[in-house]
């Protein structure tokens, strides 16, 4: 997954930055980052 000027892209797939799906992806990514940080602390 990478962040681009067009929106959230996984390969060819593009999600507009203002779409609900995009917000879900951001929320999921933040959850994963938070989990990894929590695991690193233990």
Automatic annotation (TrEMBL):
<protein>
    <submittedName>
        <fullName>Uncharacterized protein</fullName>
    </submittedName>
</protein>
<feature type="region of interest" description="Disordered">
    <location>
        <begin position="1"/>
        <end position="20"/>
    </location>
</feature>
<feature type="compositionally biased region" description="Gly residues">
    <location>
        <begin position="1"/>
        <end position="10"/>
    </location>
</feature>
């Amino acid at each position: 997954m990478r962040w681009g000027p067009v929106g959230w892209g996984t390969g060819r797939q593009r999600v507009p930055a203002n779409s609900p799906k995009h917000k879900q992806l951001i929320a999921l990514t933040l959850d994963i980052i938070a989990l990894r940080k929590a695991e690193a602390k233990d």
